[in-house]
Amino acid sequence: MRSEEALSIQVQIEQMSGYLAVRYIGSGVVEEVWRQFELITEHCNGAKNDKLLIDTTEVEAEISDIERFRVAERMEIFARYGIKVALVCRPEQIHPRRYALIAAQKRGVNVEIFTHSQDAEEWLLR
């Protein structure tokens, strides 16, 4: 049952050189990921970071196209605070047409998606 999974995705936040790194780990529902965006924004502001790397490679969660759009909608908070976002995902987590990425960019989010952390970090620090 989904309610048992509700608290199973954990968030690790780490200050890196030049950006904040957020890693999601575990299995659960996608809503757990975007519900943390406000807290992450507060961490960025508190640390005076305008660059953020979000790594979801260690997350196991089903994601529908509707949920992809919800993530994109919630990412708008990063645009409001001028935070540049690099997403690191496993290839199978990325929709072939990159719906969530395009939807977030249309909302003004400076975001790109990557399958390797090094590529994400290089883009982020440009």
Any overview of this molecule?
The chain has 126 residues and is α/β, with parallel strands linked by helices. It has a single domain (2-124), classed as 2-Layer Sandwich (Transcription Regulator spoIIAA). It has helices at residues 2-5, 31-34, 37-46, 65-74, 76-80, 99-106, 117-124; strands at 10-16, 19-27, 51-60, 84-88, 111-114. The chain has a five-stranded mixed β-sheet with strand order 1-2-3-4-5, sandwiched between helices. Helix 4 (65-74) runs parallel beside helix 6 (99-106). It is globular and about 35 Å long. The relative contact order is 0.17.
Strand order in space, largest sheet: 1-2-3-4-5
Give the ordered list of helices and strands.
Answer: HEEHHEHHEHEH
CATH superfamily: STAS domain
Coarse morphology: globular
**Which architecture per CATH?**
2-Layer Sandwich
User: Compute the gyration radius: what is it?
Assistant: 14 Å
Unreliably modeled segments: 1-6
Domain unit count: 1
Helix content range: 25-40%
Instruction: Give the class from helix and strand content and strand pairing.
Output: alpha/beta
Strands, count: 5
What is the helix tally? 7
Major sheet attributes: 5 strands, mixed
On the 0-100 scale, what is the average pLDDT? 91
| CATH C-level name | Alpha Beta
Strand content: 25-35%
Termini gap: 43 Å
CATH T-level topology: Transcription Regulator spoIIAA
